[in-house]
């Protein structure tokens, strides 16, 4: 008993130091609850965004529609060539009249 009374402060300091070292090692090894909740929320947001993306079937359908639009644009371009030529002739005539 005398030993404990005499060395009480040193024993208590050693116990607290050991406890603090253990806490430090655990803090370096494991994530805090707040950090884990933040990461969990970010993962959930990413899951929601991925769920909104089109699947492979919808993606294929979009590719088909885009290729159809390309064909229609090429056809429209061919139909607009005479209009473009006519507009150029009208512009040229208008410029010649002003001179």
TrEMBL record:
Does the record carry Membrane as a key word?
yes
InterPro entries the record matches? Phage_Mu_Releasin
Transmembrane intervals: 6-26
Q: Which UniProt keywords apply?
A: Membrane, Transmembrane, Transmembrane helix
- A Pfam family (short name) is DUF2730
Name it: DUF2730 domain-containing protein
UniProt lineage: Bacteria, Pseudomonadati, Pseudomonadota, Gammaproteobacteria, Alteromonadales
